[in-house]
Specification:
It is built from ten helices and 19 strands. A hairpin with a 2-residue loop joins strand 1 and strand 2. Strands 2-1-5-7-9-11-13-15-17-19 form a ten-stranded mixed beta sheet, covered by helices on one side. A nine-stranded mixed beta sheet has the order 3-4-6-8-10-12-14-16-18. It has 429 residues and is an alpha/beta fold. Helix 1 packs antiparallel against helix 2 and helix 9 runs antiparallel to helix 10.
Length: 429
């Protein structure tokens, strides 16, 4: 039996064991076949083709039990989802939100109780950008989340999720999130990606955010996948008229990562603010490709990325602003900056502007440099150790991104994570 046949049979078996609808199993097998025909995605200066980033293991049903120590770290009790591998360990949603029609449920529940959302939206935000990794994901997704906020509903309290990869097994982590904000709705969502275990694994995580007319979505993530996890993180926004998405992403992973973050400004007056902070340590490579495409008139797409590199690690920032012909009055701005704390580190910041129309505004800034030694010496002359002085300089460098994040809670969470990541990175020197 060929590897492809084995994978296809595993998809059918998985569907039967989980009682998923036959149409979705069919969608899986079609995606698997299509994946064989497609090329790998190409990202400027991100050399990842030799990584074990493809999802190739046959899927299987696994009952994952969240370790008590890991569960004890999560103190949020309301409007929270905790998933460990394929298993939902906790899901709490305010009854008032339920009464207003807000839906928050895991992937298997969504397929059974809310299939209309999966049929309409699954892989729709990225269908025009198909590649092998996306199709492998569509075929092998085994966990995820559906969030739906009805028309005119404002979710005051943030929704928080903890998606914990079970790396005590060798199974790939293939996870999908659908967030649909209906007309004139508002929601804040904080996503935590973590790893438990040390097995060498592959992670494929796709998030699709659909912001309907006049809606506002605040999406924040703190990504902390383990050093033995090779990951493809794909987050896409589809924005209709006057919709807004605030993206705030902290790339605090320890393994090799490709981050593919795109916002399609379809509607007139739509607005996407994308803020990324990243820290690379050890020998890891992080490649982050952030794109905003302006289709709508007077649409606004801004990208702000700051990253720090320690030890022998690498970090690549690609910032792409693309204004499509017909997008009169559109605005595309970007800033990517990389700070290197080691002579053995490698960093790139690549600004790309593609302008297909007149009567628009666009601009970019990019820099790659080392720590200002004068700043370090000044702080050390005040009695601070070199390690603390470095961390203060780095905090100052990342400050403009952190202060621009609209959520105070996310600012605090990211700030604490940055401090831990920097201490660990300095210990590796």
């Amino acid at each position: 039996m060929s590897a492809l046949t084995t994978q296809a049979q595993a998809l059918v078996d998985f569907g039967k064991q989980t009682n998923e609808p036959s149409w979705f199993t069919q969608k899986r097998t079609q995606a698997l076949e299509k994946a064989q025909e497609l090329e790998m995605p190409r990202f400027e200066k991100i050399k990842y083709k030799r990584w074990p980033i493809e999802v190739t293991k046959p899927v299987q049903v696994i009952q994952n039990k969240l370790p008590e120590a890991k569960a004890a770290e999560i103190t949020i009790n309301n409007n929270v989802v905790v998933e460990f591998g394929q298993t939902t360990a906790k899901l709490e949603l305010d009854p008032e939100l339920k009464a207003q029609g807000v839906i928050v449920c895991d992937w298997q529940t969504a397929l059974k109780e809310h299939p209309e959302f999966i049929e309409e939206y699954f892989m729709e935000a990225i269908k025009d950008d198909e590649n092998r990794l996306n199709m492998q994901h569509a075929a092998n997704v085994t966990s995820g989340l559906l969030i739906y906020v009805p028309k005119n509903v404002v979710v005051e309290e943030p929704l928080t999720s903890y998606f914990i990869q079970d790396a005590t097994t060798k199974q790939d982590f293939v996870h999908h999130v659908l967030l649909i904000a209906d007309v004139n709705s508002e929601v804040s969502y904080l996503e935590n990606l973590q790893t438990c275990g040390e097995q060498k694994t592959t992670a494929s995580v796709i998030v699709e955010v659909f912001a309907k007319a006049g809606s506002h979505v605040k999406f924040a993530s703190v990504d902390r996948l383990g050093k033995n996890t090779t990951a493809y993180l794909n987050r896409r926004g589809h924005l209709e008229q006057d919709a807004k998405i605030d993206w705030s992403m902290g790339m605090m992973n320890d393994g090799n990562i490709v981050g593919d973050f795109d916002s399609d400004l379809i509607g007139d007056g739509s607005h996407a603010e994308t803020k990324v902070v990243a820290i690379s340590t050890g020998k890891q490579v992080q490649g982050i490709d952030t794109r905003v495409t302006n289709y709508g008139k007077h649409s606004i797409g801004h990208i702000l990325q700051h990253g720090v590199i320690l030890s022998r690690s690498s970090l690549v920032f690609n910032g792409i602003g693309h204004i499509i012909h017909g997008a009169k009055g559109a605005d595309a701005q970007q800033e990517s900056r990389v700070l290197m704390l080691s002579t053995k580190a490698r960093g790139d910041a690549n600004p790309i502007l593609l302008i297909d129309d007149n009567a628009v505004t666009a601009g970019h800034a990019a820099s790659v440099g080392r720590v200002d030694q004068d700043q370090l010496y000044y702080l050390m002359s005040r009695g601070l150790s070199k390690e603390i002085a470095e961390r203060l300089v780095i905090r100052g460098f990342l400050g403009p991104v952190l202060t621009a994040i609209p959520s105070r809670k996310v600012q605090t969470e990211l700030s604490d994570m940055i401090e831990r990541k920097l201490i660990d990175g300095q210990d590796e020197k």
